């Protein structure tokens, strides 16, 4: 099969969140299974020079966006057998930021989406599957169906649209979008491109894609409800026959405590001793008292209300009455910057925060902490809890989306579980759950060590999920999916494609 991923970010070139990790890890895995996989993304100036220098020019052409003519340069770079195309246009992508600020996002990503489609007949690669991701590529399925599909070069292409986060939709005025995308008034009705009086790029992808996926089975269920549906739950219910939740994996080569070069000491489930050295090193690095007996509770997160930080705000004082150390690494909204700056002043011996994007420090936190807190209001998949599990750091999470699919609360009666969870979006439920974890940390080392071992030996690789994507592609194209060499089955409670949601069981239409 020939698969083209269209994305606005991709590791190792450019990253603001989980989307970049997902494409950067999934594409090589699908390629290893024997498929021709390519990725296309904008050529931002922020992409490191080391990669830009290695790119070679493929071709250039012009596209029209309403009355404008715009240059499209295509640069190419191959990494791990995957060909990456970069769409070059300095006016749109030669800026110091990746998203926002310019007020012309509809035009920047409208340009990108049209450039992707117009490129296809010009290169020696006609994809069977055009796999689009999040609102920035939402116009591709729409334009494909409305303006391109009748042309022979495009007739066989099937589009897949993946929701990585339903909250960000790319909502713009109808007139400006019509102006650049050349879409007539008749298309802006509520069953097509119009959405509550606006144009909505994510909705366009959801309406026109042949198949929709999202990044965990629970999130696929949740977004069909009003609470999580971000005003698109009706549409998602209507399209549930084409909606599958496929749990993300993590890049197990990057996130590997046994070989991670960022750590003070390496360790594994068989030889866990190094974790204590990582804890000491983290306490030193964060200027906290070096104490073995105190649990470190960590967060590595975007500082956004999605992540449940208002719950932390509500009970931080009570939480800090306990004998624990808290370490936070994050960037984002000013109110949480204020909260955590205040907390560091208030409890200098027990609270440490860094406001930066620091990949290397994040590795040291995952390794050095004892518990990882993730009380998200909603969580499409979440990678951090899987990384924590792999580093033997016990997750304390709210039961939502991908957190629900990856973390099972410790059950005293039968010993099952790999972390601690709470259900209601309630600060004291979270506090109680943190205290429950602290209890086992202090008073039941055998249980604690079992949980660490269970987390570290879990299977978080991409293979299982990549197989599900291949089955979806195969159903759409009629081409065989090629069998993956499967890993061992995921350790409970990982439920990569849950009953009622899985492709095979679901009812179409
Ligand atoms: P989301 O995509 O909603 O931000 P995920 O849990 O899916 O959340 O992915 C977040 C990723 O970004 C994780 O790999 C996490 O370690 C990383 N991350 C978040 N904040 C920071 C930061 N300040 N520094 C380094 N890495 C970060």
Question: How would you characterize this protein structure?
Answer:
With 509 residues, the protein is of the alpha/beta class. 35% of the residues lie in helices and 19% in strands. The protein has 18 helices and 18 strands. The strands form three sheets. A nine-stranded mixed sheet has the order 3-4-5-2-1-6-7-11-12, sandwiched between helices. Strands 15-14-13-16-17-18 form a six-stranded parallel sheet. A three-stranded antiparallel sheet has the order 8-10-9. The chain is globular and about 70 Å long. The two termini are 26 Å apart. The structure holds adenosine-5'-diphosphate. Residues 17-18, 21, 300-302, 329-331, 357-359, 362, 381-384 line the site of adenosine-5'-diphosphate.
Molecules bound to protein: adenosine-5'-diphosphate
In one word, what is the shape? globular
Q: Which strand order does the major sheet show? A: 3-4-5-2-1-6-7-11-12
Class inferred from helices and paired strands: alpha/beta
Radius of gyration: 23 Å
What is the averaged pLDDT score? Answer: 94
Low-confidence stretches: 490-509
Largest pleated sheet: 9 strands, mixed
């Amino acid at each position: 099969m020939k698969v083209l991923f269209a994305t606005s970010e991709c590791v190792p070139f450019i990253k603001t969140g989980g989307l970049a990790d997902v494409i950067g890890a999934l594409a090589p895995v699908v390629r290893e299974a024997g498929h021709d996989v390519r990725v296309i993304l904008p050529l931002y100036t922020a992409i490191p020079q080391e990669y830009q220098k290695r790119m070679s020019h493929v071709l250039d052409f012009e596209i029209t966006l309403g009355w404008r003519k715009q240059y499209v340069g295509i640069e190419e770079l191959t990494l791990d057998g995957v060909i990456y195309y970069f769409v070059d246009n300095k006016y749109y992508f030669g800026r110091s930021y990746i998203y926002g600020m310019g007020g012309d996002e509809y035009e920047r990503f409208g340009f990108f989406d049209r450039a992707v489609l117009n490129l296809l007949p010009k290169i020696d690669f006609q994809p069977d599957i055009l796999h689009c991701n999040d609102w920035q590529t939402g116009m591709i399925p729409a334009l494909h169906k409305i303006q391109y599909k009748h042309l022979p070069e495009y007739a066989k292409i099937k589009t897949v649209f993946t929701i990585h986060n339903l909250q960000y939709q790319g909502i713009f005025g109808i007139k400006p979008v019509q102006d650049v995308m050349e879409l007539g008034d008749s298309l802006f009705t509520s069953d097509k491109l119009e959405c509550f009086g606006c144009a909505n790029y994510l909705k366009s992808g959801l309406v026109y894609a042949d198949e929709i996926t999202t990044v965990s089975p629970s999130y696929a269920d949740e977004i069909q409800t009003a609470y999580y549906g971000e005003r698109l739950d009706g549409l998602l219910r209507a399209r549930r026959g084409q909606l599958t939740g496929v749990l993300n994996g993590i890049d197990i080569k990057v996130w590997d405590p046994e070989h991670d070069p960022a750590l003070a000491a390496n360790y594994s489930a068989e030889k866990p001793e190094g974790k204590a050295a990582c804890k000491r090193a983290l306490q030193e690095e964060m200027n906290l008292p070096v104490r073995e007996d105190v649990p470190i509770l960590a967060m590595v997160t975007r500082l956004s209300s999605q992540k449940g930080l208002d719950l932390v705000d509500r009970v931080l004082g009570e939480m800090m009455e306990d004998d624990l150390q808290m370490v936070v690494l994050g960037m984002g909204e000013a109110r949480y910057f204020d909260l955590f700056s205040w907390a560091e002043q208030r409890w200098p011996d027990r609270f440490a925060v860094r406001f930066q994007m620091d990949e290397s420090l994040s590795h040291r936190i995952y390794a050095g902490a004892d518990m990882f807190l993730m009380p998200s209001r909603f969580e499409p998949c979440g990678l951090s809890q899987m990384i924590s599990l792999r580093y033997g750091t016990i997750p304390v999470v709210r039961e939502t989306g991908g957190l629900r699919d990856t973390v099972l609360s410790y059950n005293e009666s039968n010993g099952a579980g790999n972390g601690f969870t709470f259900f209601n979006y309630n600060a004291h439920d979270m506090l109680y759950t943190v205290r429950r974890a602290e209890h086992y940390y202090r008073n039941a080392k055998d249980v604690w060590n079992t949980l660490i071992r269970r987390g570290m030996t879990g299977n978080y690789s991409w293979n299982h999920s990549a197989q599900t994507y291949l089955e979806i592609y195969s159903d759409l194209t009629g081409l065989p999916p090629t069998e993956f060499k499967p890993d061992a089955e995921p350790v409970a409670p990982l439920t990569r494609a849950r009953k009622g949601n899985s492709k095979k069981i679901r009812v179409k239409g």
